[in-house]
Amino acid sequence: MKITYNSFIFNLLAEEQINLPHYKGSTLRGAFGVAFKRVACALKRQNCTDCLLRTKCIYSQMFETNADGESPLGRVETVPRPFVIVPPETDNTVFEQNSEIKFTLTLIGRATEYLPYFVYAFQELGKMGIGSGRGKYTLLSVISENDGELIYSHDTQTLHSPQKNELDLGDAVSWFIEQDGEPSQSEVTL
């Protein structure tokens, strides 16, 4: 089984003071979700579960995905989100004007096709502001974590298509094996 993924480093420049909580990930992801819905949703006042466009909507595919039909996840009703935001690796909670903030975004599977929406949503989030004082920022650049390629630059306002990466899970997947009536986890290492 192969999974497509890409990891990117997002570089932000604080236009004014930005105040974030100790755990920055929840704020970053929550605010990003609001911005993503603003840029990707055609029927913003509609509840996603009742929306006619739900199956084709990028926002719904990224944030409101349900396991339809037979799922390899068993009885799980919602599937995991196809992206991971790794917050800035710093204990700082106050980012002064002109300071840089970096975080990593990993897109998994079909989400790799929607990088332009992620970039645009983070641009718009910078205009909306983030944190307790709604501090504004500019998205300076997006760099491929895998090969260091510049994917987006604020200076040129261009977005390049990154090289796709594939992860072959093969035998490295954790398998759940029934032993003596109790589920146990054994891991196969390549």
Name the helix and strand elements from N-terminus to C-terminus, one letter apiece.
EEHHEEEHEEEEEE
Largest sheet, described in full? 7 strands, antiparallel
Number of domains: 1
Gross morphology: globular
Give the number of DSSP strands: 11
What is the CA-based Rg, rounded? 19 Å
What is the helix fraction of residues, given as a range?
10-25%
Helical run tally? 3
* Low-pLDDT stretches: 174-181, 186-190
Structural class designation: alpha+beta
Q: Give the DSSP E fraction (strand runs of 2 or more residues).
A: 25-35%
Q: What does this 3D model show about the protein?
A:
The C terminus is likely disordered. This protein starts with a strand and ends with a strand. Strands 1, 3, 5, 6, 7, 8 and 9 form a seven-stranded antiparallel β-sheet that branches. Strands 2-4 form a two-stranded antiparallel sheet. The protein has one domain. With 190 residues, the chain is α+β, with helices and mostly antiparallel strands. The chain is built from three helices and eleven strands, in the order ββααβββαββββββ.
Q: What's the helix and strand layout?
A:
Layout: E1 2-14, E2 18-19, H1 24-40, H2 58-63, E3 83-86, E4 94-95, E5 100-108, H3 115-128, E6 137-144, E7 150-153, E8 158-159, E9 165-168, E10 174-179, E11 182-187
Antiparallel strand pairs: 1-5, 1-6, 1-9, 2-4, 3-5, 6-7, 7-8, 10-11
Keywords summarizing the entry:
single chain; 190 residues; alpha+beta; 7-stranded antiparallel sheet; two-stranded antiparallel sheet; disordered C terminus
